[in-house]
Write a structure and sequence with these properties.
This is Conjugal transfer protein TraX. The chain is mostly helical. It is 70% helix and 5% strand.
Length: 251
């Protein structure tokens, strides 16, 4: 493809964040105010892989991993009560934790693997990867974070397949299919196409996230401290607002 043409469709990190936040809002509108609009949650399936991809991008581009992880930890704590209110209808809902905990587990695993990789000992790096990946799956499932262990594995997919090589795209496609369709599964839709009948897995729509991800070329785009914290604050604030509106309607 001509490079000048591809730049016309290039997405920046800022635009990716806005797309993902919009899709997440659509999903949460379905979960609270508009349960009859099932297309909203179908669109929402695309949000998580984009966020997982951007979490890994953040790891590779941050100047301070300590500040990055502490900032995410802060908003994970701040988001827990709005998340519990939205999903469980109560201030304390221990059987499901918000998605920032998913990213925290994934990023800590990435950090550990990267520390070993930088030491240059391939055998040790491979050994640590073999240990960290199943550990992330188990911890994510036991801690009942959003998307469970599969969510943590999604972060690892974008870590191991971080780059622009065409076979990375095929690897991401295959991995996301396995994680979302084979492991998560869920609601199936009957579809007729060219006289053939088959079923489409709702969670499989997450694979569409690879379209905006592959239109991203590594440019940050608009960036400022207020915008950065707005992206973090959007998560707990929009959930809290949805809960307030829902309670007002149900009074």
């Amino acid at each position: 493809m001509d490079s000048s043409a591809s730049k016309n469709f290039e997405l920046t990190a800022a635009v990716l964040h806005i797309i993902a936040m919009t899709l997440m809002l659509m999903d949460h509108l379905w979960a609270t105010l508009l349960p009859a609009r099932e297309w909203l949650t179908c669109a929402g399936r695309v949000a998580f892989p984009i966020f997982a991809f951007m979490a890994v991008e953040g790891y590779f581009h941050t100047r301070s991993f300590k500040k990055y992880i502490l900032r995410m930890l802060l908003f994970a704590v701040l988001s827990e009560i709005p998340f519990d209110l939205m999903y469980g209808g109560t201030w304390f809902y221990p059987v499901h934790q918000n998605v920032l905990w998913t990213f925290l587990l994934g990023l800590l695993g990435v950090w550990l693997m990267e520390q070993v990789r930088k030491k240059g000992k391939t055998w040790m790096y491979l050994l640590v990867c073999v240990l960290v990946v199943p550990a992330g799956l188990v911890l994510g499932t036991l801690c009942m974070v959003d998307y469970y262990g599969v969510g943590v594995l999604t972060v690892f997919v974008f870590y191991f397949l971080h780059g622009r090589k065409w076979w990375y795209f095929l690897g991401q496609l295959a991995a996301l299919y396995w994680l979302n369709v084979e492991l998560l599964g869920g609601l199936m839709y009957p579809v007729q196409l060219f006289g053939m009948e088959f079923e489409l897995c709702q969670q499989g729509l997450a694979l569409l996230a690879l379209i905006p991800i592959w239109l991203y070329r590594g440019r940050q785009g608009y960036h400022s401290k207020p915008f950065q914290y707005l992206c973090y604050a959007f998560y707990p604030v929009h959930m809290l607002l949805l809960v307030v509106v829902l309670n007002f309607i149900n009074r």
